[in-house]
Design goal:
Helix content: under 10%
Distance between the termini: 36 Å
Oligomer: single chain
Strand content: 35-45%
Number of strands: 7
Length: 156
């Protein structure tokens, strides 16, 4: 099982969270809340208002999201869903745990403030103007930013 940090449309309450629990995609277990140790630019862009975490450590904000434990099948699904390597690249990020509900067999209990590693989907394949877009520390598809996410089923 592998840990994955999600910060956008795959989080609880977001349009694609159901994909994390579709057994056809593999297995995922919610472990808790965390935020990145380093700052990253989390931007919303394209005509579909997709959230992207630009792989530019040190810029932007410490990004808030959720940690999941996934099996190999779910990891392969997420790579495909995230169009790795065309749109996103799967990289490792250090996280500070905010809340932990997961049961980690054979591991120590993870406490708030602990540091852990997880995979995250970031991008280095972005348009130059994306660097000047507003950055967010947390994403919500219905947020105050007014940029409503368009699901794949709604796109051309």
């Amino acid at each position: 099982m592998t840990r994955v940090f999600v910060y956008g449309i795959l989080k609880k309450g977001q349009p694609n969270n159901y994909r994390m629990f579709d057994k056809n995609n593999g297995k995922a277990e919610y472990l808790g809340l965390a935020f990145t140790i380093q700052k990253y630019p989390l931007v919303i862009t394209t005509k579909d208002n997709i959230p992207f975490l630009l792989n530019i450590p040190g810029q932007g904000h410490r990004v808030h999201g959720e940690i999941y434990k996934v099996d190999d099948q779910m990891l392969k699904f997420l790579d495909t869903f995230k169009s790795v390597p065309t749109w996103y690249q799967r990289t490792v990020v250090q996280l500070e745990v905010k809340e932990w509900v997961g049961k980690t067999e054979g591991e120590e209990k993870v406490s708030p403030g602990s540091i852990t590693d997880a995979f995250v989907y970031t991008t280095t394949m972005y348009e130059p103007d994306w660097r000047s877009l507003p950055c967010y520390e947390s994403y919500d598809s219905e947020g105050d930013h007014g940029l409503k996410y368009r699901c794949r089923e709604e796109r051309d």
